[in-house]
Fold this protein.
Amino acid sequence: MQEKQEHVRQAGGTAADEAGGHGSAAVLPHGPVELLLVEDDDSLAEEIVADLRGRGYIVSRASTGREGLEMAQKGQFGLLILDRMLPEMDGLSVLESLREQDITMPVLVLSALSAVDDRISGLKAGGDDYLTKPFVLEELAARLEALLRRPVYGRTSILKVGPLEMDLIERTARRGEREIDLLPREFRLLEYMMRRPNAVLTRTMLLEDVWSYRFVPQTNLVDVHIGKLRRKVDKEGEEPLIHSIRGVGFCLRVPE
Amino acid sequence: MFRSDLFRTAAFRLTLALACTVVVGMLLEITLLYGQVSGYEALRTNDLLRRSAAVLMQEPPGELEVKLNERSTNELRVFLNGAALFDQDHHRIAGDMASWPEGLTMTPSVQILPFFLPDHSVTVMRFLVVEVPTIQKGKARFLVLGRSRHMADELRHMARKSTLYSILPLVSFALIAGILLSRRALGRITKMHDTIEQIMQGEMRERLPVGRGYDDLDRLAGSVNRMLDRLEQLMGEMRDVGNDIAHDLRTPLARVQARLERVEALSQALPEEEGGRFERAVGLCRKDLEQCFSIITALLRIGEIENGQRRAGFKMMDVMSLVTDIVDLYEPIAETQGLGLFVAIGQGPVKIWGDADLLNEVLANLLENALKFTPRGGRITLSAGYNELQEPWVEVRDTGVGIPAAERKAVMSRFYRADKSRNIPGSGLGLSLVAAIVHLHGGRLVIEENLQGGEQRKGTVFRVIFPLVKAP
C-alpha cells in the first residue's frame, strides 16, 4: 500500500510546480498508527477515513460524543481527531473528560467554528491542534504528522540536518562550508523547518507556528517567503533541500 | 442655531398660542365689562339728571335761583358738576356755569358736549336742558344740569391699567414657560436625534430614550423602538439565513473537495497524457472550490464577529508592535511587486484594548488591499498614534488607484467591488470583515484620500480609530 502510493505520487509529480519542488507525500516514518475519528457527518467521515487509510493509518470511527469517549477510554489510540459539534456529548466535553482521566494522546480538534474564542477554548480544553472546517485532507494529514512526530528539541544549541547546520546562539547558518546570510525572519523559518525534517509543512502551519498569525492570506505570502529562503539555501548546482508539495505546502527533505 | 431651534419647537409655539388666546380673551372680557359698566353709568347719569331736574322743577321760582347759587340741595352737591339757570337768550341768571354750553340745543334728551371750565380746561359732560315755568309770561327760562363723565373716564383708565398689569406678567410668564418647556422638549429631541444618528451608523442595538411621563413624544419613541426591534429581528433573521446557507454549504463542499482530492490521487495512476488532463481539470475545480471556501469562511467569520460580543481574547496591547511585525511579514511580497513598504516610526507604543489575532487580520486585510491596488513603484506606509482626543489609531496609506468619495462607504459592504477592480481577484469581503472586527473593538474605519502622496500619487488612507483606552 505504501509502496504503491509512493509510486503513484512520483508518477504524478513530474509536472510539479515551477518553483523547483518535486512533489511527494511523506511516507509514515513511524509505522502504522491507530487513529480514532469522532465525526458525526457520515459522508465527510467516510472521505477522511478513506484518505487516512490510504496514507497508511489504521482508522476507527465513532459518530457520537459518547461513543467516541468510550472508544477512546478503551482502545489504545495514538491520536484522536475530534469534531467539536457532536450529538449526545459535545467535543469539548469529551476532551475534558479524557484529560481528567489522564488520557494524554494528542488530540486534533475539528470545528466548523473559526472565531478566535473557539480556537482558544478548544486548546484550553486540552486540544493539541485545531483545524477549521472546511480543510484540505492534506492539511489534516500534515497536521497529524506534526502531532505524531514531535519536533527535534535537543539540548544542544547546534541544529544539524543533512548538509545544513544552524547555530541558535550565534544566529548563523551554513550549508556545508558555505555561510548562509539570513534575515531574522528567514532564520526563524529555516529553524522551524530544520526541527521538522522530511515533514510536510502546510502554509497555514507555517503562518501559525513561525509567525503566529491566524488569518488566511489572500496572497501567496508563504510561497514568497519560502522562495526567498530557497534562493539562499539551495544555490545553483546544489541538491535542492526545500521542496514544494503541490496543493499542500513545503518540505525540507534531507537526502538519505 | 440652538436659539432659533428653541423658538421653533412645538411646545414653545403651543405656549405662545395659548398665551395669545388668553390675552385676546382677557382684552375681550375687559372691553365687554367696560362697555357694560360705562353703559350703566350713562344710564345712571341720565337718570340722575332727570331726577334732579324734576326735583328742582318743584322749587318755587324764586327759590330755584337761591338753591342753584348755594347749591344747597343734596342732589346738586353730590351728583351734579354743573347747574345753571339761563334765560331765553342763554344769559345766565343763576348757577355755576359761566355761559351756555356751546352746541347745547333744546331737546329733551341728554346731550354729550365738551364744556369749558373757568380755568379753560375742557371736560366732556352730559347735559340736560329743561324749561322752567316762569312768572313773567313770554320769558322762558332754562335749567341746565351737567354731570361730568369723570366716572366713566376713571373706569376706562382703570380698565386700561388693569389690562396692562395683567397682560404683561401673563405674557412674560407664558414666554418663560414656553422656553422651559421647549428646552425640555428640545433636550429630548436632541437625545433622540443623536440616537437615530447612531442607529444610522449601524448601532442597531441602540434605542430611543422613553421617559416615564408617557406623553405623545414618549409614545412615539416607544413605537419607533418597537419598529427598531422588529427591524433588528428581521435583519438578524436575514443574516442568520445567510449564515445558515453558508454553513450548510460547507459540509457538502468539503465532501466535494475530499472526493476531488481522491480523484486527483487516482488520476495519477492513469497513463501520463490522460492523467495530466484529468489532473489539470481537477486542479482548476479545486482552485474554484478554494475560492468558494474562502468566501464562505469570510462570510461566517463576519457573521460570528457581528453576532458575538465575544471579547475573550481581548487584552492591552501595543498596536505599533503589530504593525512592525506585519510589515516584516509582508515586506518580501511588496518587494516582489516593486512597492515600498514602510513603517512611520517615532510615536513609541500605542496602547489599545483588543484581540491581537483579529487586529492582525485587520492589518493584513488592509495591507493586502493596498498591495492589490497600488501600481509598481508606489509606496505603502503603515503608522499608528494618538489623535487630538487621545484616541489611538492605526492607518495604512497607499499611493494606489484611490477610492472615489462616493464609493468609500460602499466598499465596506459585503461583496462590493469597485468597477475598476473587477479584474482583480478577491472575495470582496475583506473590508466587510475589517469593518466587523473594527466594530467589535468599538472603533471606526475612516477612508480618506491620501493627500501626502504628491501630485501624481494620489491614493487611499484606511484609518482605524479605536475608542479611548480603557480596560474593563
About this structure: Chain A is about 40% helix and 20% strand. Residues 42-54 of chain A form the longest helix (13 residues). Residues 2 and 195 of chain A are 25 Å apart (CA to CA). Residues 1-27 of chain A have pLDDT under 50 and may be disordered.
